[in-house]
Design a protein that fits this description.
The complex is a heterodimer of chains A (226) and B (382). Chain A has 226 residues and is of the alpha/beta class. Chain A has helices at 47-55, 77-87, 103-108, 118-131, 147-159, 177-194, 205-209, and strands at 3-16, 19-32, 36-40, 62-67, 70-71, 88-91, 165-169, 197-201, 213-218, 221-225. In chain A, the strands form two sheets. Chain A has a six-stranded mixed β-sheet. In chain A, strands 2-1-4-5 form a four-stranded antiparallel β-sheet, covered by helices on one side. The longest helix of chain A is centred in the last third of the chain and has 18 residues, at 177-194. Chain A is globular and about 50 Å long. Chain B is α+β, with helices and mostly antiparallel strands and 382 residues long. The two termini of chain B are 26 Å apart. The chains are: A alpha/beta (226), B alpha+beta (382). At the A-B interface, helix 2 of A face helix 1, helix 11 and helix 14 of B.
Chain lengths: 226, 382
């Protein structure tokens, strides 16, 4: 099975005032197509940093990050934006929906960057909202939705372009138990039924259990892999 | 993108409304000032081939009559006529009874102002009557005068009252403001005040506007070493400087207008900066979705441009509606204000200022949004 993610000897350091903070210290990680990886670890272990590197929204200090066959560290800012459009679907902990757009418009937003016609965009956005079970809420604004529903809209926005890789940063971190369970069910379904490759950062052991593969980060290094 | 820009614009309706209202009133003020300046600079009836010669000291300082022939004999001068601003009070001091009154020379007045039409018989009748006066058709109609009617004008600048008889009516349909003027014989004024040979201004008609600079320089040079140095200027410049007797109107108007534009620029820039700062995380999200720098730049600029153009259009529009009303009110004091209108140039300038303010005020936040690192944007929220 081909690897969608291939991280080689990645080091990431930040400078904070006079201090150099080494967040990732030579991380190697491969994620096969169709896998569902849960990235665990204590706060400050570097899991969100690793997720950001996979999304191409941050760059490694050294090492290589290949996603969907592309060494994304070599891409320019504009090429990286184009690459993200095609290959990455990102789910934030706090949903990060655009409050002035309806659920439908939020989901349609990534499609406005494509050459699709309005009718094609509508069909795809409605389909994505159907997958997350929110067809009846598509004309609601985020403030009119519950946290769980907002996160489901965010998932619909992430999958609407059919990206190569779905990245989720603590997707259940801001939800009650029932909503968290619904969101995890949805991610599992996307992985199993639609063969979406997913990398999820989570603190929650129950969430991590739903993944196929567990990866543990400790002080910027990969501790275990199951 | 357009939908998002529009929704962002309406996100904080009160703030957007207040910003647009500020712009609207600034542009209203600016458009009014520009219209006043236009009016002063191109008062109806002013001509490019007329030059006004007056004392270099002030309009209140009179010139010797001996200058008349000297200015008339300058190269390119076809005719010259003396004019004295009389002012005075007709009926009462209410603004609506104010109109320009000049002491003039019947023999040369209409040679310098050939666009004013009067019958030879009426001109002759005026010239033959020391107490005679001629007036424009609009003025005659306003007061219901008929040829032969007598009127009384009380002197104020000059200590002499005038008992005048209407001897002729001149017309100028193209510029009705020129029909709101009264001319009487200068000899009558000289007799009244008991002094002869003092002239307020000389009006010269030249052969071509192209020779205007040469004639002005020649006139000023001619009297450079005399006791009464002169200032020669085009009729338009003179009318502007006449208005400036109230103070440096042009400078004042320009300063007020600039102050309004600059202050409104900072208000709009502050609004846009606040709006952009509030949406830092959203910018991060949009970038994560694949929005490129240029697209984010355009998104922010579209919003600020909309504010600028909308404010300017409303300001100019309101000005266009109010201008005739303001003009009508001011015309009671000075009839020339009756023609106060919003010109195409005023519209273009107002809208251009709106576009400029919109683009400049949005540029900083737009560049910041475009340059923002996604991790920084998202971290601020998480």
């Amino acid at each position: 099975m081909t690897n969608v993610v291939d991280v080689q000897d990645v080091v990431k350091t930040y400078r904070r005032d006079d201090f150099l903070i080494k967040v990732l210290q030579g991380v190697n990680l491969q994620v096969a197509a169709g896998d569902f990886v849960a990235l665990q670890g204590p706060s400050g272990s570097g899991k969100s940093t690793l997720l950001n590197l996979l999304a191409g929204i941050d760059r490694p200090t050294s090492g290589a990050v290949r996603v969907a066959g592309q060494d994304i560290g070599r891409l320019s800012e504009s090429d990286l934006a184009l690459w993200r459009r095609r290959h990455i679907g990102f789910i934030f902990q706090f949903y990060n929906l655009i409050p002035v757009l309806t659920a439908f418009e939020n989901v349609e937003l990534p499609l406005t960057l494509t050459r699709l016609s309005r009718a094609q965009r509508k069909l795809k956005a409605e389909t994505a909202l159907g997958v997350v079970g929110l067809t009846d809420r598509m004309h609601h604004f985020p403030r009119q939705l519950s946290g769980g529903q907002e996160q489901r809209v965010a998932i619909a926005r992430a999958i609407v372009t059919d990206p190569t890789l779905l990245l989720a940063d603590e997707p259940t971190g801001d939800l009650d138990a029932k909503s968290a369970e619904d969101v995890l069910d949805l991610l599992v379904e996307l992985n199993r039924q639609f063969a979406k490759t997913i990398v999820m950062v989570t603190h929650d052991p129950r969430a991590a259990e739903r993944a196929r593969t567990l990866v543990h980060l400790e002080k910027g290094q990969l501790a275990t892999a199951a | 993108m357009r939908k998002l820009a529009l929704r962002n614009l309406l996100r904080n309706k009160l703030r957007t409304t207040l910003t647009i209202a500020s712009l609207m009133f600034a542009l209203l003020l600016l458009s009014l000032l520009m219209a006043f300046l236009d009016l002063l600079a191109s008062t109806a009836g002013s001509s490019d081939n007329r030059i006004i010669v007056r004392s270099a000291i002030s309009l209140a300082t009179l010139l010797p009559e001996s200058y008349w022939q000297q200015v008339e004999s300058l190269p390119h001068v076809e005719a010259a006529t003396p004019l004295n601003w009389f002012q005075g009070v007709y009926k009462d001091e209410r603004p609506e009874n104010f109109f320009p009154r000049f002491a003039a020379d019947p023999a040369t007045l209409f040679k310098v102002y050939p666009e004013l039409h009067i019958s030879p018989e009426e001109l002759q009748a005026w010239a033959a009557d020391r107490r005679g006066f001629v007036a424009g058709k609009a003025l005659v109609q306003k007061y219901g005068w008929k040829v032969g009617d007598a009127i009384f004008i009380k002197g104020d600048i000059y200590p002499v009252d005038l008992n005048l008889v209407l001897r002729g009516i001149f017309t100028q349909p193209k510029t009705p403001d020129q029909e709101k003027v009264l001319y009487f014989q200068r000899q009558y004024l000289e007799e009244g005040i008991g002094k002869r040979g003092l002239i307020g201004t000389y009006v010269l008609r030249i052969d071509s506007p192209a020779n205007e600079v040469a004639v002005r320089k020649a006139a000023e040079a001619k009297f450079e070493n005399s006791d009464f140095q002169v200032r020669a200027e085009t009729e338009k410049a003179f009318q502007l400087s006449f208005a400036e007797m109230l103070g440096n109107v042009k400078l004042l108007f320009t300063v007020i207008g600039l102050a309004a534009v600059i202050s409104i620029f900072f208000i709009t820039a502050n609004t846009m900066a606040m709006a952009a700062r509030e949406r830092t995380a959203e910018v991060g999200v949009l970038k994560t979705l694949g929005f490129a720098r240029g697209q984010l730049l355009r998104l922010v600029l579209a919003e600020s441009l909309a504010v600028g153009v909308l404010g300017a259009a409303l300001g100019c529009g309101l000005c266009a509606v109010l201008m005739p009303v303001v003009g009508a009110l001011l015309a009671k004091m000075m009839p020339v204000f009756g023609t106060l209108r919003m010109s195409g140039g005023n519209w273009a300038t107002g809208l251009a200022i709106g576009v400029g303010i919109g683009l400049l005020s949005g540029l900083g936040p737009a560049v910041s949004a475009a340059r923002l690192r996604i991790v920084d944007a998202v971290r601020r929220v998480a």
